[in-house]
Design a protein that fits this description.
169 residues, mainly alpha, Arc Repressor Mutant, subunit A, 6 helices, 6% strand
Length: 169
C-alpha cells in the first residue's frame, strides 16, 4: 500500500526527499520519452531498439556484435535479431574485421546513415522546441546534468557497457 504524504516520517532526511523527487521526475520523463520514441521512430518502419542500434553505430562507428549488444544492454541473441532485421532492410552491413579474421564488424549502410540522420533531425527539432521556453542557463545546464546522471547510474548499477555483470544479462 502506498504511503500517503501525511503518513511519512517527518524526520526523513532532505536528501531522501530530493532523491524521491528526482526519481519521480526522471520516471515521468523516461515514460514520456519512451512513448514519444515509439510513436516517432516506428513511423520510419523500424523499432525503437533498431533505432538505438543505428544510433550506436553512428556514434561509435563499426562494432562487433558483442560490443553492440553490450552498448544496448541486450543479450547477444537479441542483438543478433535486431541486426538481422536492420541488415534485411538494408540499413546495416556485416564486414570482415580488419584485425581479427574470426570477427565480423557491423556498420551502417548509406541508407542506414540517411535514415538515422532523418530520425535524429526530427527528434532534435522536437527537443529544440521543448527547450525554447526555458532560460538559456537551464538549456545549457540540462545536457550536462542528464549526462552526469546517466554515467553515475551506469557506474552504480554495475551495468555499464564496459563492465557487464550477471545482473545485466
Amino acid at each position: 500500500m502506498p504511503t500517503r504524504p501525511e503518513n511519512r516520517p517527518t524526520n526523513a532526511p532532505a536528501a531522501n526527499d530530493e532523491a524521491a523527487k528526482l526519481y519521480a521526475a526522471l520516471s515521468d520523463l523516461v515514460r514520456v520519452y519512451q512513448f514519444r520514441d515509439r510513436d516517432r521512430i516506428c513511423c520510419h518502419d523500424i523499432s525503437v531498439t533498431q533505432c538505438y542500434a543505428l544510433e550506436a553505430l553512428t556514434r561509435s562507428g563499426p562494432r562487433t556484435l558483442n560490443e553492440l549488444a553490450a552498448e544496448l544492454y541486450l543479450d547477444k541473441s537479441t542483438a543478433s535479431r535486431v541486426v538481422a532485421t536492420l541488415e534485411r532492410k538494408g540499413y546495416v552491413v556485416r564486414q570482415r574485421h580488419p584485425r581479427d579474421g574470426r570477427s565480423i564488424l557491423l556498420d551502417l549502410t548509406t541508407s542506414g546513415k540517411r535514415l538515422y540522420g532523418r530520425i535524429e533531425r526530427d527528434l532534435v527539432e522536437e527537443t529544440r522546441q521543448l527547450l525554447q521556453d526555458f532560460e538559456p542557463a537551464v538549456r545549457q545546464a540540462a545536457p550536462l546534468l542528464l549526462s552526469r546522471l546517466a554515467r553515475s547510474a551506469e557506474r552504480r548499477s554495475g551495468c555499464a557497457p564496459t563492465s557487464r555483470t550477471a545482473c545485466c544479462g
